[in-house]
Amino acid sequence: MTDLSHPPLPGALPDKRQVAASFSRAAASYDSVAQLQRDVGGELLRRLPSSLLPGRWLDLGCGTGYFSRALNGAFPQSQGLALDIAEGMLHHARPLGGAEHFIAGDAERLPLQDGRCELIFSSLAVQWCADFTAVLSEARRVLQPGGVLAFASLCVGTLDELRESWRAADGLVHVNRFRPFSAYQQMCAASGLRVVSLEQCPHVLHYPDVRSLTHELKALGAHNLNPGRPGGLTGRARIVALVQAYEQFRQARGLPATYQVVYAVLEKPL
């Protein structure tokens, strides 16, 4: 990773066009394997201020619209906007409803007017944004004074078991990179938004075997999108080495996959 006080260097995070294409391809399979996404988004909803009654909310990185529909249920009198960079996700989400408008757009350059929303909700999307400072700046611009940005993201330590197992197998880049939690702390503190809460919480899933985990990552569209990833098919010998290395992590419940989740609630000053 780069110096914590600066945006990631070019090539440190996946190209957003590859991210959009990958998640578009995964739209049909996403919800069938999105238990982590549902758990994290549900926890983020619970962290919203109890007094919050937005007239208009934005689901930033809405994906299949699961939490657009949840926000619509939580705030039935509000107008909902759902935005995603992946057209395939929007095509999937629109017929299911939940938001008044589904918008193709980039979190780093929101196609919305200043002061448009009282709530921006973003669950497990902004980890794919190379310029998170721009995301925060855009959120501040689009929020009304007193409005809330609530986001969940992933940080360093995510999928470390898989990362270490691949390192033992061939030493190549197979697992997505994420920012350190300290970078989120620094950027949020410098954003001009008031930090209501910001914490890192581990979330561990268990799998019967490595194939189940890698199949789920592919179905989510969240498999390896890193620059420097190996091209072509992965050889049988490397797969055997990966499986043997990952077995060293096995627990009673299965093979663990740890996600280090960042939960944040920020408020635009009045």
TrEMBL record:
Enzyme class: transferase
GO molecular function: carboxyl-O-methyltransferase activity; malonyl-CoA methyltransferase activity; S-adenosylmethionine-dependent methyltransferase activity
InterPro entries associated with the record: BioC, Malonyl-ACP_OMT, Methyltransf_11, SAM-dependent_MTases_sf
Function: Converts the free carboxyl group of a malonyl-thioester to its methyl ester by transfer of a methyl group from S-adenosyl-L-methionine (SAM). It allows to synthesize pimeloyl-ACP via the fatty acid synthetic pathway.
Pathway stated in the Swiss-Prot or TrEMBL entry: Cofactor biosynthesis; biotin biosynthesis
Taxonomic lineage: Bacteria, Pseudomonadati, Pseudomonadota, Gammaproteobacteria, Pseudomonadales
Protein family membership: Belongs to the methyltransferase superfamily.
Gene: bioC
Catalytic reaction list: malonyl-[ACP] + S-adenosyl-L-methionine = malonyl-[ACP] methyl ester + S-adenosyl-L-homocysteine
E.C. no: 2.1.1.197
SUPFAM superfamilies recorded: S-adenosyl-L-methionine-dependent methyltransferases
Record key words, sorted: Biotin biosynthesis, Methyltransferase, S-adenosyl-L-methionine, Transferase
Keyword Nucleotide-binding part of the UniProt annotation: no
UniProt keyword annotation of Signal present: no
GO biological process: biotin biosynthetic process; methylation
Domain Methyltransferase type residue range list: 58-151
Source organism of this protein record: Pseudomonas brenneri
Residues making up the signal peptide according to the UniProt record: none
UniProt name for this protein: Malonyl-[acyl-carrier protein] O-methyltransferase
